[in-house]
């Protein structure tokens, strides 16, 4: 098995970091679309449109076409939301990784390398709402290099960094559609402490729930 090296971010890593983040976020479009389709309001709209057109037109073709167009529009809506989030992130912290993570106290950004290729990323910084905690952010590993323990190693890196700086816990946020991430964090000892919906119209429409997880370092026995 190829060796995995975890090191601090360098300026030469910027394009690889942005690519890994973009690809990782884009992977959630299909699962988010399916999540949207499972919501009762979505199913009600599709059913009402189908039944109304079926009754008025006496034809299968028109309602099927209309529902198909609605589904295509819904998927494009999900794509738009993710692209907007990706673009916003690339213009903010990921456009100034040094200023956001490397030059500030108790913050850092790491990359995982395999055979001199950056294949994973993670960062942490103080959480504004929980002064005793550092927040794990931007965790992502290329699909081609998953199953090698890279994500677990990155989690342990953040936990060790947090403990060394005297913080009580690591917290992070993930979404309802990121089921693999939830399993990983729970395996690493994180506990889900809160569920909430972002107060934005798009999140409310899709019932896009976020989960807050916490790793209490006094109880943690897996992060070393």
From TrEMBL:
Lineage, opening ranks: Eukaryota, Metazoa, Chordata, Craniata, Vertebrata
Family matches, as PROSITE patterns: GNAT
Gene3D superfamilies: 3.40.630.30
Pfam families: Acetyltransf_1 (PF00583)
Domain named N-acetyltransferase: residues: 62-218
Record-annotated membrane-spanning stretches: 60-82
Biological-process GO terms, alphabetical: axis elongation; chordate embryonic development
Gene: nat8
Source organism of the structure: Cyclopterus lumpus (Lumpsucker)
Keywords: Membrane, Transferase, Transmembrane, Transmembrane helix
Entries under InterPro entries matching the protein: Acyl_CoA_acyltransferase, GNAT_dom, NAT_camello-type
Protein's name according to its UniProt entry: N-acetyltransferase 8
GO terms of molecular function: N-acetyltransferase activity
């Amino acid at each position: 098995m190829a060796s995995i090296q975890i090191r601090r971010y360098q300026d030469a890593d910027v394009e690889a970091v942005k690519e890994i983040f973009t690809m990782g976020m884009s992977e959630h479009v299909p699962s988010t679309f399916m999540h949207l389709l499972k919501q009762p309001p979505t199913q009600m709209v599709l059913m009402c449109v189908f039944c109304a057109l079926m009754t008025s037109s006496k034809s299968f073709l028109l309602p099927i076409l209309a529902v198909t167009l609605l589904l295509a529009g819904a998927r494009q809506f999900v794509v738009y939301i993710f692209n907007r989030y990706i673009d916003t992130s690339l213009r903010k912290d990921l456009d100034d990784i040094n200023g956001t993570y490397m030059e500030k106290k108790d913050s850092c950004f790491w990359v995982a390398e395999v055979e001199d290729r950056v294949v994973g990323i993670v960062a942490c910084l103080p959480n504004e709402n929980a002064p005793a905690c550092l927040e794990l952010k931007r965790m992502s590993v290329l699909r081609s290099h998953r199953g090698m323990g890279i994500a677990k190693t990155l989690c342990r890196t953040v936990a060790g960094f947090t403990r060394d700086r005297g913080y009580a816990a690591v917290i992070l946020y993930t979404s309802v559609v990121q089921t693999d991430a939830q399993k990983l964090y729970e395996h690493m000892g994180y506990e889900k402490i809160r569920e909430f919906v972002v107060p934005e119209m798009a999140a409310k429409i899709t019932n896009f729930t976020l989960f807050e997880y916490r790793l209490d370092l006094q109880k943690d026995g897996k992060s070393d």
